[in-house]
């Protein structure tokens, strides 16, 4: 998993702007779910465009340890596919032979989920309704993150989950022999918690119900429905979504194509907007309405950002994003928009730092429990860049520089957080002194090839030492 030896990297102003057409790796959320749900299907599934980042590879390893047969095949140089693979590149296909709902077997060793909160929490849901004992751990970042938010509802379903002090990993999951369905109202807006309960509900007789007061990404619901589960979504008078799953379905194996990750596309898109003279296209980006808050916000800031060739790929809305360098103005992001762009605040902060006026982001409490305390990490990094920033428990204000920020050589501390590293490297493209980060290795958890792709567009990113 992620190495503890850091490799500082620096990004500097691109003199002639960024230009080109790229595809970003497959969506991380969909990739985790594709492996987990295919492993529970009856028969053989194939997945094209799977994200081959360390987070998703941790899920693949865990599902293998639980009995699914998962292989990676290269089918030679191929035509461009809906998964965004370029002509001439080997076409990679993942093949999964499922064990059927309820068919997971006890793992022989500890399950190491690396840096991935999604892998850890969704897997805990799967384990909770199987009669087995499993021990889960993760890297130094993941071992700090809260697991009680999933352990509490899963214990109500009959599992026993013993966590390290304060609800952290490592944890031992003693799965329920006779799981019981629950109706659970989410106390935090989290697709991971919602999904963990629904995945536990798969091997639970009867109807499992999750009520989410604020809508979060719905990839689990879409994929379960496409595989034949009976899952309904109703909206209550106050806007809350009530998601009901009939337990113990037979999930049908299927051939799936994973679209590009909007949370990865966010970095080249913002880079193109804030680097003068740029025009870039990111093809094949997932535009699920639970994920597109950043793009709406950038347009509110005056960004020249358009969608071309809107289409459907594997039950998800997809399009090509075209970003042209734009003079951005400050924006206020209301709390209710936060769940649809929760991973994008670090890179939005980079955009706001170059905008004209003071931006304000609200509803940021969840940022404090991501791969790092992102609210603090962003504030500290912006201060190093010479940008004036104010924060509260769940909000942030940024005084934009109306053009390039000062920047500088002191490395931003990334705390094993891929999105902090990428956001500040992107800011380096609009920083007079460039920007340096203390470590960029963990970028491989979600965006393998980030540096090469950005340099291919014209960015200058290099080792700092
Ligand atoms: C994810 C949900 C979000 C997001 C994470 C991926 C998912 O986390 O930050 O990167 O795939 O369900 P929360 O559910 O904790 O908000």
Automatic annotation (TrEMBL):
Cited InterPro entries: Enolpyruvate_Tfrase_dom, Enolpyruvate_Tfrase_sf, EPSP_synthase, EPSP_synthase_CS, RNA3'P_cycl/enolpyr_Trfase_a/b
CDD domains: EPSP_synthase (cd01556)
Its EC number(s): 2.5.1.19
Enzyme class: transferase
Binding site for phosphoenolpyruvate: 28, 117, 145, 192, 374, 419
Reaction catalyzed: 3-phosphoshikimate + phosphoenolpyruvate = 5-O-(1-carboxyvinyl)-3-phosphoshikimate + phosphate
Biological or metabolic pathway of the protein: Metabolic intermediate biosynthesis; chorismate biosynthesis; chorismate from D-erythrose 4-phosphate and phosphoenolpyruvate: step 6/7
Superkingdom to which the source organism belongs: Bacteria
Domain Enolpyruvate transferase: 16-451
Location in the cell: Cytoplasm
Stored NCBIfam families: aroA
Protein family: Belongs to the EPSP synthase family.
Record text on subunit structure and interactions: Monomer.
UniProt-recorded name of the protein: 3-phosphoshikimate 1-carboxyvinyltransferase
Organism: Tistrella bauzanensis
């Amino acid at each position: 998993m992620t190495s503890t030896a850091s490799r500082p990297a620096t990004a500097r102003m691109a003199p002639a702007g960024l230009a080109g057409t790229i595809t970003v790796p497959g969506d991380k959320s969909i990739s985790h779910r594709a492996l987990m749900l295919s492993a529970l299907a009856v028969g053989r599934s194939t997945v094209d465009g799977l994200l081959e980042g360390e987070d998703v590879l941790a899920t693949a390893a865990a599902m293998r340890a639980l009995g699914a047969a998962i292989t990676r095949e290269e089918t030679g140089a191929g035509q461009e596919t809906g998964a965004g693979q370029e002509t001439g590149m080997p076409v990679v296909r993942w093949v999964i032979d499922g064990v059927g709902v309820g068919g997971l077997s006890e793992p022989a060793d500890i399950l190491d989920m690396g840096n991935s909160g999604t892998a850890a929490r969704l897997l805990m849901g799967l384990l909770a309704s199987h009669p087995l004992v499993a021990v889960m751990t993760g890297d130094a970042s993941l071992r700090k993150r809260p697991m009680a938010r999933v352990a509490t509802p899963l214990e109500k379903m009959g599992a026993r989950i013993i966590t390290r002090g304060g609800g952290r990993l490592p944890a031992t999951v003693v799965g329920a022999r006779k799981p019981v369905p629950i109706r659970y109202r989410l106390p935090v807006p989290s697709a991971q918690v919602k999904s963990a309960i629904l995945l536990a509900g798969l091997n639970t007789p009867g109807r499992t119900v999750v009520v989410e007061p604020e809508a979060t990404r719905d990839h689990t619901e879409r994929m379960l429905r496409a595989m034949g589960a009976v899952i309904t979504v109703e909206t209550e008078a106050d806007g809350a979504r009530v998601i009901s799953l009939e337990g113990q379905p037979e999930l049908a194996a299927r051939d799936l194509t994973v679209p590009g990750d909007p949370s990865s596309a966010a970095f080249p898109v913002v880079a193109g907007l804030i680097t003068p003279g740029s025009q870039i296209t990111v093809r094949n980006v997932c535009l699920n309405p639970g994920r597109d808050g950043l793009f709406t916000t950038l347009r509110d800031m005056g960004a020249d950002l358009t969608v071309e060739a809107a289409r459907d790929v594997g039950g998800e809305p997809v399009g090509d994003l075209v970003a042209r360098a734009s003079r951005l103005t400050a924006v206020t992001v209301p709390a209710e928009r936060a769940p649809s762009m929760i991973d994008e605040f670090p890179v939005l902060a980079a955009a706001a730092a170059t905008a004209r006026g003071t931006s304000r982001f609200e509803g940021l409490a969840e940022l404090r429990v991501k791969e790092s305390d992102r609210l603090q990490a962003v504030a500290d990094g912006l201060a190093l860049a010479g940008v004036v920033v104010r924060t509260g428990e769940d909000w942030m204000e940024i005084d934009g520089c109306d053009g390039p920020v000062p920047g500088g050589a002191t490395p931003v501390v990334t705390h094993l957080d891929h999105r902090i590293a990428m956001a500040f490297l992107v800011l380096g493209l609009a920083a007079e002194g460039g920007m340096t980060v203390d470590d960029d290795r963990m970028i491989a958890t979600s965006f393998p090839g980030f540096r090469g792709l950005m340099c291919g567009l014209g960015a200058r990113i290099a080792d700092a030492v």
